[in-house]
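Handoff note, outgoing to incoming analyst
You'll be picking up this chain. Sequence as last confirmed:
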Amino acid sequence: MSGTFAVTPLDRYLAEQRSLTAVARFARYHEADLPPGASSYSELLPLERPGPGQQYAFEVDLDSCTGCKSCVTACHSLNGLDDGESWRSVGLLHGGSAAVPFQQTVTTACHHCAEPACLTGCPVDAYDKDAKTGIVRHLDDQCIGCRYCMLTCPYEVPRFNPARGIVRKCDLCAGRLEAGEAPACAQACPNEAIRVRLVDTAAARARAVTEPFLPGAPDPRITVPTTRYRSARPYLHEATPADALAVRPATAHPPLAVMLVLTQLSVGTFLVELAGRTFLSGKLVGAASPGNGIVALALALLALSASVLHLGRPAYSYRAVLGFRHSWLSREIVAFGAYASLAAADAGARFAGVHGAPLAGLEALVAVAGVAGVACSVMVYAATRRTWWRGFTAGWKFGLTAVVCGLGTFLAVSLVGSVLAGSGSGASGTAARTLAELGRPLAVAMAAAAALKLAAEASVFRHLRSRPGDLWRTALLLRRDLGTLTRWRFGLGVSGGVLAPLLVLALASGDPPATGQCAAMAVLGLGAVVAGELCERSQFFRAVAPPRMPGAPG
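Most recent structure output, in case you need it:
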């Protein structure tokens, strides 16, 4: 009797099992005792080495990725990563409609960009892009653990290892590629979703302009990632990352917050004194604050010392100037190093009684170096392309911090100095004149600058009414997760930057003026202002909404 038999689910399952996976075929090739040079596994690797204008790159077939995370496990095991350390992650996209919904898992690692921002941002040249393979490698021995590459990379690929004090990242298993073997992630994928291919870097640059990269991913024009994501689904690029609305605070970086506030305070103090001698009574300014230069120098040295505490390997901090030609962080370090050195020379010249053109020339150099340092600080964060840190925003924040803190410091130092110089009498003629001719304009300027800065900071909350985006996430963080810190910031800013100077003006209106009380209020106001600025700088780091690949670790 003849006839046809229906194909059962068991038949399909057995047929599936007879089809070898990439890993099984790879193992069979190596078990066959093939001659040297014939054992390379070409199904996951290109047959040829990169030629001129080419480099290795990942190619991911999204339709084959099931999110099993075999790639993550293999990368962790074969690279000997520490607990909690991962160089590859798996995220999730979803989209479609209510009638035809879909979801897609996405595996992602370093994209070995044609124009890697981690390399250009690194202050110690701890990154190298191999001229032959295009692989972006991290040089662990050179790294000082500054973590700036984590900020400059739009995909947040480099990961900090606290136990080692350095950053580490995927190197596309360069050693395995050299031996003709596939990277760990590609070899472990049961569906062959990850492959290594040759890409033309010029074509990659063109695609970065004309083709979308991946839904939710940062703009590919920033670094020109070479990874290719392929899918037969025409509506994939209309999908949304599953964590698109996830809002979580970023790392606080306390040493950097202290360094930024104190350097700007120091530079602002020095500039305010120069402006006071230019627009107010020069002799009175010099007599009222003989220790102003010492205060500015001490704050600069304290700021530079605090910055070293941020490093994972502070003993190698001297390397941080190696990237001066391409890294804004190196330029910032050089500028503030020059500022501190020149400020020390200025303080020594004042102590030695130097006057006239030599001192004026030295002070001009100090001012230029200080302004250059603050400008480099702005560019350090603007270069990361993060919306909350863009140049205009960071510029007015850092600039107004210098103005407000500089005015507050100079006001406090001037009033305290005049009181101490009054032979014990808080209402001496010299102190009263200082308060009338110097304290009042400084107090008015400080209150106005502080009010302006606080109003500008509060403007971010208008984004709560806009569509979800980077600044929407920032505003939500400031109101929700960082709400307590936000209240402290505005409370300290108003009390120290606005109310305290106004109280100084009120106390100065008496007859005789309450000079001692004015000095005390100026000191208290300065303390509140600095505390408020430290809160604001902590918000600067914690409220940023960093770009990342879908599902990347936060």
